[in-house]
Amino acid sequence: MKVGVIVATYNTPEWLAKVFFGYEQQTDLDFHLIVADDGSGVETAQVIERFRQRGRLSLQHVWQQDSGFRKCGILNRAIASCDCDYLIFTDGDCIPRRDFVAVHKRRAKPKYFLAGSCQRLTLPISQAITEQDIASGRAFDGCWLLSQGLPLSTKHLRLFMGRWVAEVLNRITTTKGSFSGGNSSAWRADIERINGFDERMGHGGEDAELGYRLIHSGTRPIQIRHSAIVVHLEHERNYIDPESRARNLQIRTKTVRSRVAWTSFGIQKNPCSIDSVRPFDVKYPTDGHS
Q1: How distant, in Å, are the alpha carbons of 94, 136, 284 from that of 181?
Q2: pLDDT above 70 covers what percent of the chain?
Q3: How far apart are CA 184 and CA 98, in angstroms?
Q4: Does residue 88 sit in helix, strand or coil?
Q5: In-domain check, residue 127
Q6: 234: which DSSP letter?
Q7: Per-position DSSP letters for 94-154, written without gaps between them
């Protein structure tokens, strides 16, 4: 099973450097890192080149011209540009814990996608986290983060759990698994079978819409929110647009109600009948996963 990690980014080079360092610390380094860049400037390219020169990561930079929020488009280009069997999706502001890739690979299962989530940090903590904090694991330790000013909340409980407690909670949680752009994974064949992300969508629920179509095509979610840990660095979001969110909601609502699986606005730019998208009609690598 050839694994690719697709990191979506846009003009947050300082955060992206911390994310790359997190991937250098992974216990399982057998993966290809694809940067899906929605039009960042030269500073981001310099960060990518610096980490490429370090030689610890297999890095690929997929870039498109800046023309507003077009995350779905660059994600589709990243999917089409790689030859990986299994894809982990995350963002350039999400630092992975050292077992992040290993958890996704261990839990990968044919006919399923993995649904995780992100642990949000405050801006002061995001700015203060160093490479030493990431390498030592402090950046993912609930007690340390609380000492740095992270507000006490039940949302942070996963940062205090051991592996086995986390696995139990993954199984008994009542939270439905949804596809999150910051922490989810799926078989490339399953994503291509529904034609990837819908490029009509701007910011707001665009990742969840793909998850609904995966479910409609017969691919089911597995919850890993308590065991696949990433911390989300805070930053400005000048791309938030109420009109875009409203349009996205309309598309997502139509997807749910009509139970469509294929989008005509995805990787392939040609129409396709939903009748051609059948559950469980793809072959998966024989890598020992079941």
Answers
A1: 10, 26, 23
A2: 91
A3: 16
A4: strand
A5: yes
A6: P
A7: EEEPTTHHHHHHHH--TTEEEE---EE--HHHHHH--HHHHHHTGGG-HHHHHHTTPPP-G
Yes or no: say if 209 and 248 are a contact pair by the CB < 8 Å rule.
yes
- pTM here is 0.90
The tokens of 240 are what? 């938030």
pLDDT higher than 70, residue 280: no
Model pLDDT, residue 275: 39
CB 7 within 8 A of CB 35: yes
d(C-alpha 67, C-alpha 89), whole Å = 22
Residue 141 belongs to some domain of the structure = yes
Q: What's the rounded Cα separation, in Å, for the pair 84 and 278?
A: 22
Mean pLDDT on 10-38: 97
Query: 6, 62, 70, 66: which is closest to 39 by C-alpha?
Result: 66
Q: What is the largest CA-CA distance in the chain?
A: 55
85 inside domain: yes
Q: What is the pLDDT of residue 274?
A: 43
How many C-beta neighbours within 10 Å does residue 258 have?
Answer: 10
In this structure, is residue 256 part of a structural domain? yes
Rounded Cα distance between 113 and 118, Å, is: 17
- Number of structural domains (the chain) is 1
The pLDDT assigned to 287 comes to 53
What CATH number is associated with residue 103?
A: 3.90.550.10
Continuous segment of H or E residues that includes residue 29? none
Name the one residue in this structure whose structure tokens are 């606005």: 265
Q: Which domain holds residue 194?
A: 3-269
pLDDT average, residue stretch 149-156: 84
- Write the CB contacts of 264 (distance below 8 Å, at least 6 apart in sequence): 195, 270, 271, 272
Any residues with CB less than 8 A from the CB of 118 and at least 6 apart, and which? Answer: 91, 94, 180, 182, 183, 230, 231, 232
